[in-house]
Amino acid sequence: MVRLYTDDLSIGYGERLIVNELSVQIPDQKITTIIGPNGCGKSTLLKAITRIISHQSGSVILDGQNVAKENTKQLAKKMAILPQTPESASGLTVGELVSYGRFPYQTGFGRLTKKDYEVVEWALEVTGTKDFKYHPVAALSGGQRQRVWIAMALAQETEIIFLDEPTTYLDMAHQLEVLELLQKLNREEKRTIVMVLHDLNQAARFADYIVALKAGQIVKAGNCEEVITQEVLQDVFNINAEIGTDPRTNKPMCITYNLLRGE
């Protein structure tokens, strides 16, 4: 089932075209990972789909409706995005930050309702951040902060969550912690997860569907066995990769690689 897709989407900054006539379908209630070299349009695509930036032509369709014509608050009830570098939460406690996810549901003076408080508590519980509720966000570790930002996205009660490089700046243990949390949200809460990742093996391990981009266009999209191949990685990253099988997941993994020079 597909609720969200782009149709001939072109995105640019000024006269520079970043994404060119890209059509992609996002499988519902699955984890989709977007991979590709720096500057290929991964983050730009996420921002355009979630309407953070406008696109030049084409369309983004969600539930049969053009996202560009959706009411902002209504759209915020359907999709949430965690940017690559979230804005500073200086001076806020964890509970206060997570409560910001209730903004699309607030009316009048913006006071939190009983339902709002219940959802915030649930988001803290699910992400394992309840013990930090009254702690300053700035006092948390990188992995803890990332889980708090995810809790805020969850508090929006959207069925689709976008994350732009959610493991950046985290050590290996915290990267795994965040990715396992997202996998849990997908499996237990049926959330559709769309994220940009740089680590190919993490993409293969956690994604149901992978989109490989190069120069603003799709080179290959499909399951990890179809995308994490020597041929696709050579085309996308200009590397000669040795592909093996992850003994824990039986999914393909990049064992080692060489940069192709002048070939």
From TrEMBL:
The keyword Amino-acid biosynthesis belongs to this UniProt entry's keyword annotation: no
Ranges of residues in domain ABC transporter: 4-240
Domain of life: Bacteria
Keywords per UniProt: ATP-binding, Cell membrane, Ion transport, Iron, Iron transport, Membrane, Nucleotide-binding, Transport
One Pfam family matching this protein: ABC_tran
Cellular compartment(s): Cell membrane
Membrane topology according to the record: Peripheral membrane protein
Gene Ontology molecular function, alphabetical: ATP binding; ATP hydrolysis activity
GO cellular component annotations of the record: plasma membrane
Entry-linked SMART domains: AAA
Matches recorded under PROSITE patterns: ABC_TRANSPORTER_1, ABC_TRANSPORTER_2
Database matches in InterPro entries: AAA+_ATPase, ABC_transporter-like_ATP-bd, ABC_transporter-like_CS, P-loop_NTPase, Siderophore_ABC-ATPase
GO biological process, one term: iron ion transport
Identification of the protein by name: ABC transporter ATP-binding protein
